[in-house]
Specification:
By secondary structure, the chain is an alpha/beta fold. It has nine helices and 15 strands. The chain folds into two domains: 5-124, Rossmann fold (3-Layer(aba) Sandwich); 131-287 and 323-339, Dihydrodipicolinate Reductase, domain 2. The strands form two sheets. The chain has a nine-stranded mixed beta sheet with strand order 14-13-12-11-7-10-9-8-15, covered by helices on one side. Strands 3-2-1-4-5-6 form a six-stranded parallel beta sheet, with helices on both faces. Strand 12 (252-256) and strand 13 (262-269) form a beta hairpin. The longest helix has 20 residues, at 315-334. The structure holds nicotinamide-adenine-dinucleotide.
């Protein structure tokens, strides 16, 4: 029988629990090392999850030498992602890392280049794609129920009192959260970004130091326009964390509330001012392995390491979602439309 892949996790803070819970359910991977600049955090996680023989340390290269791992899970803070990734790739490990891929486009490109040079996989967690509900929407849209897509709107309004680093962070909504929504928009439509105009602001009464609200208009490929309206500083009538979506095509519209409510209508025939409409079913689909959030992504990554496949969120694709984030930030800073490149 093949031995499970050996994994080292670096960054043993809040989010590492979601990773380690998922790993417990995937027999083909086991933890052999825990790294954190706070050694006690690494030790605590190893003990909590019962990996008593794992190597513990504050220096990734040292733990990689000791543990001889196949893969590295990067759950550090965004500013550390590129250094962790480049170090791990150069040590011969494949890397699956947390979003956002990097804290700048320059760093994201550096990580992509290192993955290419080393021939190792570097993929990024975008757990909101690995969800049976968004797979259902995507499958419906793939069937082209109402011609070419013309317009996609997403709304994200949540009054989130984190009380930690996010309260002090610049571009908190765009950097820390909108990466999920922008990646979802690319996933749903299959379109890539062309340009963006964005306004960012901090609403009156905000408990954040910097801008926690944003509205962005993206020109996407194939003539599609995608709009994002969001706030982490909006009390009451919260949307889902997955956003509320409206997708308009040439002859019809679908909505998804980010939970389990899907609606779709299409023009049946012209009938005066309003066309005669028909209601469409958005059929349930079997999302197979492409669900379960972190678990789905880790499982796919492990399979790709085994078979030489390419994960859906490989760095060379994910950098396009990141480019939407940094394009929006640049546009907000400069007060003008920005071309998006990667
Ligand atoms: N996918 C999601 O839904 C989701 C949700 C929350 C957070 N995240 C992401 O997960 C990552 C971690 O977030 P968190 O909430 O766990 O943060 P956290 O601050 O709780 O934990 C980060 C840990 O990384 C450690 N660390 C920092 N720099 C390091 C370095 N150079 N080497 C080793 N360890 C280092 C810190 O000591 C800390 O223990 C972030 O990128 C965040 O955006 C993703």
């Amino acid at each position: 029988m093949t031995e499970p892949l050996k994994a080292v996790i670096t960054g043993c803070g809040g989010m590492s629990g979601a990773w380690l819970n998922a790993v417990k359910e995937i027999p083909d991977v086991t933890m052999v090392g825990f790294v954190d600049i706070r050694e006690e955090a690494a030790r605590k996680r190893a003990e909590e999850y019962g990996y008593t023989d794992a190597f513990i340390g504050t220096e990734l290269p040292r733990v990689l030498d000791q543990a001889q791992s196949d893969v590295v899970f990067d759950v550090t803070i965004p500013e550390a992602h590129t250094d962790v990734t480049v170090t791990a790739l150069k040590h011969g490990c494949h890397v699956l890392g947390e979003k956002p891929m990097a804290d700048s486009m320059e760093n994201a490109k550096r990580a992509c280049a290192t993955a290419r040079e080393t021939g190792k996989i570097y993929a990024v967690i975008q757990n909101r794609r690995y969800d049976s509900r968004i797979r259902r929407l995507k499958s419906f849209l793939n069937s082209q129920p109402f011609g070419k897509l013309t317009t996609v709107n997403s709304d994200f309004y949540i009054g989130a009192h984190f009380g930690g680093f996010r309260d002090r962070m610049e571009h908190v909504l765009l950097l820390d959260m909108a990466i999920h929504s922008f990646d979802q928009a690319r996933f749903i439509t299959g379109a890539d970004p062309v340009s963006v105009y964005c306004k960012e602001w901090n609403p009156a009464g905000s408990w954040y130091d910097h801008d926690a609200s944003a509205i962005a208009i993206f020109q996407m490929t194939d003539g599609l326009v995608y709009t994002y309206r969001g706030s982490w500083c909006a009390e009451g009538l919260n949307t889902s964390w997955e956003c509320e979506w409206r997708i308009v095509g040439e002859t019809g519209t679908a909505t998804w509330n980010g939970h389990s409510e899907f609606k779709a209508q299409r023009a049946k025939q012209a009938a005066g001012f309003h066309s005669e409409l028909e209601t469409l079913e958005v059929p349930e689909v079997d999302a197979g392995d492409k669900q379960g959030g972190h678990k789905g992504l880790i499982r796919e990554f492990v399979q790709c390491v085994r078979t030489g496949g390419t994960p859906e969120t490989v760095c060379t694709d994910n950098i396009k979602s990141l480019a939407m984030v940094f394009g929006a930030i640049e546009s907000a800073d400069q007060g003008k439309e920005i071309e998006i490149t990667w």
